[in-house]
Design brief:
Length: 300
């Protein structure tokens, strides 16, 4: 029997929609998923939770969705969890990738097989290629190589899995707030790019934009403004990452945010980034004259 430990975001509902039989849906207290959980547990009761899973006949676990590190209340730790606390604390003290591997090891030691989300739904990992009408230009291919190097360096520091690259320069790197927050720094809603109905409002906005551009120019490296225009979003897993959990994801929301940021396209690593609603992503990017490149690592 499969248990789905569901975090926040769109991945848990996407997995449930692809499964013939509903798994036991579990959620960590304080991180309500977009699906109704059958079981909610606290980290302080992890030992009891795992025993309950075994009693229910669970032998496989899939972890999907986002969960931040919860605060542990020492007074709430139960007897079944007490022996696990040294391992849990050691995991929590590490970077995200190391912590995730430690949790996976703990679950395996408890007798469970860890199942990756893309093993349940192989279609979430699209084939390499360019499914959009627009294709990347040569400079976008060069930017992708720079993005790959940047994410590799970020992975070594266990920070993020995405960056924005424009004309060979990394303009932004993902942090703990995620890809959407990174893109939001550059976003201008698509329906506000033209002149406003009120010319005075347009002039006021234009003046504010000019002030902001001057600030960007001053703060930019090498006297160049910080902008994402005609750049790319590059996203890939961390080198050496355990791909049974926390593979990066994009979806229609990512595509729209990339368009609002003025990007020319989105580049993801083939076999390493899941795409929720590929048809919807392609439709949005086609509508904005942008590309999606599902790129093999090291491709030029």
């Amino acid at each position: 029997m499969l248990a789905l430990i569901a975090g926040t975001g769109d991945l848990p509902p996407a997995l449930l929609a692809r499964l013939d039989a509903r798994p036991l849906v579990c959620a960590l207290d304080g991180f309500a998923p977009a699906v109704t959980p059958d079981v909610t547990f606290r980290l302080e009761h992890l030992g009891t939770f795992l025993a309950d899973l075994r009693d229910r006949g669970v032998d496989r676990i899939c972890m999907a969705g986002a969960v931040r590190r919860p605060e542990i209340d020492p007074a709430a730790i139960d007897a079944a969890t007490l022996p696990l606390i040294p391992k849990v604390q050691a995991a929590m003290a590490q970077g995200d990738d190391v912590a995730l591997r430690a949790i996976i090891t703990l679950l395996e030691e408890a007798g469970f097989t860890i199942v990756a989300a893309h093993e349940i739904a192989p279609d979430l990992l699209p084939k390499a290629g360019v499914p959009t009408k627009v294709r990347p230009e040569d400079w976008h291919r060069a930017d992708a190589a720079e993005g790959e190097a940047c994410v590799a360096a970020m992975g070594a520091a266990d920070t993020g899995q995405a960056c924005i690259v424009r004309v060979g320069q990394v303009q932004a790197q993902e942090d703990q707030t995620g890809t959407d927050a990174m893109l939001a720094r550059f976003c201008e809603p698509l329906d506000r790019r033209g002149m406003a109905d009120d010319p005075l409002t347009y002039l006021s906005d234009l003046g504010a934009d000019l002030v902001e551009q001057v600030r960007d120019w001053i703060s930019g490296a090498d006297d160049t403004p910080i902008t994402a225009d005609d750049g790319i979003l590059f996203k890939a897993p961390k080198p050496g990452q355990d791909r049974r959990a926390d593979l990066p994801i994009i979806g229609p929301g990512t595509a729209m945010a990339a368009a609002e940021a003025g990007l020319a396209g989105v580049v993801i690593e083939a076999g390493g980034v899941m795409v929720l609603d590929l048809a919807g992503v392609v439709q949005i990017l086609d509508g904005q004259g942008m590309f999606l490149w599902i790129r093999e690592r090291g491709a030029v």
